[in-house]
C-alpha cells in the first residue's frame, strides 16, 4: 500500500524501517544526482548520499513543512557534501585563459545529456566544481557561497568565472571531437 | 533553488542538471539502514523519557503530600492506650508466683522451698 507523503514522513520519524526504505526509494535518485555533481567520483558520491540520508532521517522531525521537503533534503545533501569537501581543504586554482568561443552556450550544453555533463563537471578541479554547482545550479549568491565556504565574496566570484571558462573549454573540446 | 535566467549559461546548466536523477547503487540502502536502525530505539527512549517526566512529577507530588502529613502539627488527643484494670491484688499475685515455683519443684522432685519471713532471716 502506497503511503501519502505526510504519512510516510510520520512513519519515518517513528523509525519504521520499511517506511524509511520507501522514502529512500522515492527520493534517493534525485539526491544521488546532487551527490554526483559534488563528489569527485561515484565512491565519494555514495559516501555523501549515505551520510546525507542518515542526517535526513535524524533531522526529519525538525522539518517544519516550510518550503518543499525535496528542497530541504537537497540543502542537507549540499551541506553534507560541503562539509566533506572542507575536510579535504578546497583548493582554488589560478586563472585560465578564456578560449575563443566557436559555439554558443546552447550548442555546447544542449548537445550533452545530464550524465555526460556531470562526467565533464567531475573532471574540473574540486574548488571550481563546488563554486559552479553552488552558483549556477543551486542558485546561491556569491555572498552566500562566501559564507558557506569561508572564503571572500571576491574569491567566490573569480573562482566561478574561472570554473565557467574551464567548463566551456572542455565542452568546446568535446564538441570539436564529436564534430570530427 | 533560485532559478537563473533560462537563456544564460547558468540557466541552461540549471535546467539540464537540477532535475536530473540517477539510481544509487543497490547495496547502499543496507549501509544506511544499519546506521539508522537504532533510530527506533531512540524514538522509544524519547517517548519513555517524556513518560518519565510525568512519573517524576507524580513522585514529587506524592513526596510533598507525605512531607505535609509528617510535618503537620499533632492533634490534642492522648495517644495512651486504655489498659485493663487489675482485678487481683498485687500481694495475691506474688503469693501465686511462689506457689508456681513449688509446683514446678514438685514436678522435678526437688525439696519444697521454705520461704522464711524477713525477720527470721535477719536472726
Please report which band the strand proportion of chain B falls in: under 5%, 5-15%, 15-25%, 25-35%, 35-45% or over 45%.
Answer: under 5%
Number of helices of chain A: 9
Report low-confidence residues of chain A grouped into runs of 5 or more. none
Mean pLDDT of chain B: 76
Rg of chain A from C-alpha positions?
18 Å
Largest sheet of chain A: none
Helix content of chain B: 55-70%
Proportion in β-strands of chain A: under 5%
Helix and strand pattern of chain B: HHHHH
List SSEs of chain A in N-to-C order: HHHHHHHHH
Number of strands of chain B: 0
The oligomerization state is heterodimer
Amino- and carboxy-terminal Cα gap of chain A: 53 Å
Per the principal axes of the C-alpha atoms, what is the gross shape of chain B? rod-shaped
Structural key phrases:
heterodimer; A: 180 residues; mainly alpha; 9 helices; 72% helix; B: 123 residues
Descriptive account of the structure:
The complex is a heterodimer of chains A (180) and B (123). Chain A is mostly helical and 180 residues long. Chain A has helices at residues 5-13, 17-38, 42-59, 69-87, 105-110, 114-122, 126-137, 142-149, 153-179. With 123 residues, chain B is mainly α. Chain B is built from five helices and no strands. Chain B starts with 8 loop residues before the first helix and ends with a helix.
Amino acid at each position: 500500500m502506497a503511503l501519502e507523503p505526510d504519512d510516510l514522513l510520520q512513519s519515518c520519524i517513528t523509525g519504521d524501517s520499511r517506511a524509511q526504505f520507501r522514502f529512500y526509494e522515492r527520493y534517493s535518485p534525485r539526491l544521488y544526482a546532487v551527490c554526483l555533481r559534488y563528489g569527485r567520483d561515484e565512491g565519494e558520491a555514495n559516501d555523501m548520499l549515505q551520510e546525507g540520508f542518515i542526517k535526513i532521517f535524524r533531522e526529519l522531525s525538525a522539518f517544519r513543512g516550510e518550503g518543499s521537503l525535496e528542497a530541504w533534503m537537497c540543502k542537507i545533501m549540499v551541506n553534507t557534501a560541503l562539509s566533506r569537501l572542507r575536510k579535504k581543504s578546497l583548493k582554488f586554482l589560478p586563472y585560465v585563459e578564456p578560449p575563443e568561443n566557436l559555439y554558443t552556450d546552447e550548442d555546447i550544453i544542449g548537445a550533452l545529456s545530464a550524465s555526460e555533463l556531470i562526467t565533464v563537471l567531475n573532471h574540473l578541479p574540486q574548488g571550481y566544481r563546488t563554486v559552479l554547482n553552488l552558483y549556477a545550479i543551486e542558485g546561491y549568491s556569491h555572498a552566500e557561497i562566501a559564507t558557506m565556504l569561508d572564503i571572500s565574496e571576491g574569491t567566490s566570484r573569480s573562482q566561478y568565472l574561472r570554473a565557467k571558462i574551464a567548463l566551456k573549454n572542455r565542452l568546446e573540446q568535446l564538441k570539436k571531437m564529436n564534430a570530427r | 533553488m533560485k532559478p537563473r535566467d533560462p537563456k544564460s549559461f547558468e540557466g541552461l546548466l540549471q535546467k539540464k542538471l537540477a532535475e536530473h536523477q540517477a539510481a544509487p547503487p543497490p547495496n547502499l540502502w543496507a549501509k544506511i539502514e544499519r546506521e539508522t536502525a537504532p533510530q527506533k530505539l531512540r524514538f522509544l527512549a524519547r517517548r519513555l523519557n517524556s513518560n518519565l517526566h510525568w512519573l517524576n512529577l507524580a513522585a514529587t507530588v506524592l513526596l510533598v503530600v507525605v512531607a505535609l502529613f509528617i510535618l503537620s502539627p499533632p492533634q490534642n488527643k492522648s495517644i495512651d492506650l486504655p489498659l485493663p484494670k487489675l482485678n487481683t491484688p498485687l500481694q495475691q499475685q506474688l503469693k501465686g508466683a511462689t506457689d508456681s515455683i513449688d509446683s514446678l519443684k514438685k514436678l522435678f522432685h526437688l525439696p519444697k522451698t521454705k520461704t522464711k519471713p524477713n525477720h527470721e532471716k535477719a536472726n
